[in-house]
Amino acid sequence: MKGPKGTTACLGIKRAGKAKLQTFNILRGDVPVKTIDAVYMATPTIGYIRINSFGDTTYAEFLAALAKLQTEGFENLIIDLRGNPGGYMETATKIVNDFLPKNSLIVYTKGRKSVRQEYRTDGRGAYQSMPLVVLVDETSASASEILAGAIQDNDRGMIVGRRSFGKGLVQVPIEFPDGSMLRLTTARYYTPSGRCVQKPYKPGQEEDYEADLILRAEHGEYYSADSIKTSGEQYRTRLGRIVYGGGGIVPDVFIPRDTTGITSYFREAYLSGMLYQFAYDFVDKNREKLSDCKTLEDLQNFLKYKRLVEQFAQFAAKNGLKRRNLMLARSRKLIESYVTATIVTDVLDDSEAAEYINQTDPAVLRAIGLLEAGEAFPKLPEKGKPGKKVANLFRVSQLLPQGRAAYAQTTGDAPSIYALCPRKVRFVKA
């Protein structure tokens, strides 16, 4: 398939259900890789954008997505960063710039021998007052965490989901003559409040570091907010809320994993690829009728009485997956969801598939609830314990008036002098 741009390649295609090989002449060219794969209106006033990575074209795609939602009348926004492993930091900072006022700190880097480098907003963002919710999970990393951390620390919107991955290293690539490469860590990323995004790693604990996501599952972090492990270091957002360091971004609103439909039957169906194969076979057999489905509503109405789960069970049994009625009943909704989403992607596109999945997605539904209730902007914390030391890199003068009041509650008196200590700020009376 590879070759000079503008030249042609002859492809032979064998389609399911057809014996004759079909040939096509394909013109070689640039293959666009979309980093935003879903844009739609979740409600008449709430727009939804899913970013799967941060690349060269992401910001342009983001502006186009906002323009599309603008024509449809959006007044609130959900940015979905779940499953986003990161990418270009500069792209993430450009997106944050659209939502924060002038001179707001987005992120800074600091190394052992390098000076602190700050990234701040220029004040030209067009959506500085729009209600915003950002979705993250344990696979949101790097640039995703920079975006989420900037929104959280500046109290610009709510973070919903589960603790993010915890990858915040600045690495410089060094190439060698044999083609190999060394990535040398030179600095770390820090959120505006001073939290290090990078999860801790120590000599002799490499296995624990690599198995971090597995360890989170073992101690229940995916299912209970009380099981989230942090370093214990507390930091203050600009408004005065407490946030925690120790790797990753801890969400403001925790959403546990839903494992109610997962059975060994479902796992085997998923891992073997049978769910997807059945969906593609279904589309091939019904392509002519499916071509009349122009919207998600049309497609859902067509599939409503097709008994997809029963058809799948018969298909799976023919392909070696023994029918287990109790497990099938428990996994019914999950199987139907996976199969339907695959069909929607094939017949329509990724945006409609995301819209279908999100109809029952707990994180998206919670985000919609927050926005509709007018609770997308963080509120002041409850009164803290007098004398408690709280780590923070915002100076008192940089805090909003409400934030200064929160500090007065925490320390027992309004601070007039602050003393910098290693990794902490301690307030003392004049």
UniProtKB/TrEMBL annotation:
Residues annotated as transmembrane: none
UniProt keyword Hydrolase present: yes
CDD domains registered for this protein in UniProt: Peptidase_S41_CPP
SMART domains reported in the protein's UniProt record: TSPc
Entry-linked InterPro entries: ClpP/crotonase-like_dom_sf (IPR029045), PDZ_sf (IPR036034), Peptidase_S41A (IPR004447), Tail-specific_protease (IPR005151)
Protein name: Peptidase, S41 family
GO biological process, one term: signal transduction
GO terms assigned for molecular function: endopeptidase activity; serine-type peptidase activity
GO cellular component, one term: outer membrane-bounded periplasmic space
UniProt KW keywords: Hydrolase, Protease, Serine protease
Keyword check for rRNA processing: no
Pfam families: Peptidase_S41
Ranges of residues in domain Tail specific protease: 19-212
